[in-house]
Amino acid sequence: MLRSETEAGASSTCVIRDCDMKFVKFAILFMATAILASGCTTVSRQLGSITANKYAEARSGTVWVVPPPQLEPPSGNDRTVYISYRNISDSDIDLRELLRESAREQGWTILNNPDLAKYRLRASTRFFGEVEPESGGAGAARTMGAISGAAVGLGTGYAIANMTDSGVAGVAGGVAAGGLVGIGISNASRPREWALIIDVVLEERQNKQVEFEMVTDSGSRAADRAGAGNARMASGGGTSQGNTSVATAKRKSNYFPHGIRLSVWANQMNMKEEEALPEIEKRTRRVVTQMLPM
Fold first, then answer.
1. Is pTM, for the whole model, over 0.70?
2. Which of 23, 137, 235, 264 is the most buried (most CB within 10 A)?
């Protein structure tokens, strides 16, 4: 018996669909093989993107552990600042030019003579390393004591001001993907977070000398790249131990020193140090002028 044209057409469609499905399966297998060849971290991030895991892409943010002071906006002639920088951490980070360029881009005039500037911004990198995911580095920052060079009673508290979603709780679990899940992929799926902690003393010039009590910080600290603290602690898989003593001294000056402490963080699945640093530097550039009066 001859088949009708309708039956013949339906049969041809089925054959085409079968071919399409085979091609799709082959394409998926090929992609999976290529991803596996590129490493477990790539596998995890690719699968994380598919399952909307927030750690699949690099994220960054800031935590004002000690927020900037609320100062009156300067007039045009007073938008002058002297910026100095030092690194007293174990890292090789140098933010000097980044700080200056960021301020210049926001309309500030950078002076080389500190005695002529309306404001003096003295920044110190205290720590760069791995911290607990979702901590934003705030836990490590709180263990660092008072801000050396800042006036007592101002810039020495720990009022937290979260500028991003760094306070969101929870840690991502492993991503299920059938036979692709193994020990390596499971480890690569875990978020890792890095933080840069910066102390800033922002000095504002007054019309006449003022007297204030200033923090002079001295202490000993033994900290590894995985944390910082004034007691034994675990942070990012490492330990830290140290102690800090704080003394004060009375000063008279035309510049009043406000203390600021900032933590800039970045996280992602299995994020490496070399991946975190560019994200942290970009975020730091964006927030530099929030330290200066707007």
1. no
2. 137
